Amino acid sequence: MGIISCASASACWRGLDYYKRKKIKNIEKINNNEYTSIVSGNENYHIYLNLEHPRRSTCTCPLANGKRIICKHIVATYFSVVPNSAKDFEEEQEKLQQEYEEYEQRQYKKAINYLHKMSKKELIDELTYVFDYAPEWVYTDFVRRNNIGD
Ligand SMILES: [Zn+2]
Fold first, then answer.
1. What are phi and psi of 68, to 5 degrees?
2. Centre of ligand 1 from the C-alpha of residue 15, in Å
3. Whether the Cβ atoms of residue 132 and residue 124 lie closer than 8 Å to each other
4. What single string gives the DSSP state of each residue in the chain?
5. Closest CA to 64 of 79, 49, 80
6. What distance in Å separates the CA atoms of residue 67 and residue 85, rounded to the nearest whole number?
7. pTM for the complete prediction?
8. Rounded Cα gap, residues 12 and 2, in angstroms
9. With 29 labelled, which of 43, 46, 76, 130 sits at a CA distance of 20 to 30 A?
């Protein structure tokens, strides 16, 4: 498991932002797998990054201190020391987003095709279900658009 897969989505995006704004200072290489750095903000946080064992990475910020949490400072340090990691992360996220949108489009088309195959009674049952369980505006909008109100 890499740093990114151990970190929350929020830590990844905020870490990327820190990396782009060059918030990571004093990077020191201990060996190929271990690095230390300092992130300067209101306070200086001290980061220890372990690429081989991500959960052993530490940061002195309130969120991660004493816990096995991969915070944005650790992620930002990771992006700073591993070449192309930030670019790879962004490309991977874009790819996932595109795959998700394509999946959504396919599902929507399937749903519309299914509607065309339903009988009038099935459609009425389905729409009644939607009125009962969808947010209130779906029903009120239906009434308004079809001039069913008093
Ligand atoms: Zn931190």
1. -95, 50
2. 9
3. no
4. --HHHHS-HHHHHHHHHHHHTT-EEEEEESSSSEEEEEEESSSEEEEEEESSSGGG-EE-STTTTTS----HHHHHHHHHHSTTHHHHHHHHHHHHHHHHHHHHHHHHHHHHHHHHHS-HHHHHHHHHHHHHHS-HHHHHHHHHHTT---
5. 49
6. 24
7. 0.76
8. 12
9. 43
**Which of 19, 8, 10, 9 has the alpha carbon at shortest distance from 47?**
19
Centre of ligand 1 to C-alpha 40, Å, is 11
Q: How far apart are CA 85 and CA 7, in angstroms?
A: 14
Q: How far apart are CA 89 and CA 85, in angstroms?
A: 6
The pLDDT tens digits for 48-59 are 999 999 999 999
Instruction: Tell me, in angstroms, the distance from the centre of ligand 1 to residue 59's CA.
Output: 5
pLDDT at 42 over 90: no
Q: Distance (Å, rounded) from C-alpha 60 to C-alpha 65? A: 5
Task: Report the mean per-residue pLDDT for the chain.
Answer: 95
